[in-house]
Design brief:
about 35% strand, globular
Length: about 240
């Protein structure tokens, strides 16, 4: 199989058959190097056969910080990922590193999709911004992970008029029991900023529901980051 590119389009985050999500971060240093790294990833992947049927999609996002890239990939299983590691990953990364030396690969985590808010039927907006919330707890506890996500949904339900710029939201629980990854799609970064600044504290504001989210038992830290979708790859049928 070969791969095809869907520039500035989202992967199907609720597609059937996904048994595992891998999310990783690269630090590259500058906006120019971010663009160069995305170009190198595209060239490298499109020059090769799709590595395994077990990889369903591979998407790259450019961080608003001018430094990072977020990689989001969907897999059938951990075995499928390990097949790529054994056979393809070193050569692909070497080709990318040759084009953009000095990439720092700082994190790789495994998740399962837990709960989503999806667009209404007929809503074909293409998000211009992805906002992630990376949550860490002080130890493994799957019930606590799910409880935090449920608390977020209760806080969201308390908003009588959610900002219209939100497109979707997807919450993933880490397979090690200690993390949650929120992946929200917005029409634009400006729409997300407006939602945060809305009257009454806005999205994530000082309501009792949002306070319960921020003070959830065992919560160590949460980080919010904005990205621009840059490249999405999948196998041709």
């Amino acid at each position: 199989m070969t791969a095809h590119v869907r520039p500035h389009a989202r992967p199907d985050l609720t597609r059937p058959g996904v048994g595992l999500v891998k999310a990783s971060t690269w630090r590259v240093g500058t906006p120019e190097r971010q663009r160069a790294a995305v170009d190198a990833i595209a060239r490298t992947w499109l020059a090769r056969q799709w590595p395994t049927d077990g990889l369903l999609s591979y998407t790259v996002h450019v961080g608003a910080d001018g430094d990072t890239l977020l990689h989001y990939s969907q897999w059938r299983s951990e075995d499928a990922y390990q097949e790529l590691v054994r056979t393809e990953r070193t050569a692909r990364n070497a080709a990318i590193d040759a084009a953009v030396p000095g990439i720092e690969r700082v994190a790789l985590h495994s998740y399962a999709l837990h709960r989503s808010v999806v667009p209404a039927p007929g809503d074909d907006r293409v998000p211009g911004c992805v906002v992630t919330v990376d949550v860490e707890f002080d130890g493994p506890d799957p019930a606590r992970q799910r409880g935090w996500v449920d608390a977020v949904f209760e806080a969201l339900a308390d908003h009588p008029a959610p900002h219209p710029g939100g497109v979707s939201a997807h919450f993933h629980t880490g397979l090690d029991g200690t993390r949650v990854l929120g992946y929200a799609e917005w029409e634009s970064a400006a729409a997300h900023e407006e939602a945060l600044a809305a009257p009454g504290g806005g999205f994530g504001g000082p309501t009792p529901q949002w306070r319960r989210v921020r003070t959830h038992p065992g919560l160590v830290r949460s980080r919010v980051r904005r990205y621009t979708p840059a490249l999405s790859l999948a196998a041709d049928a």
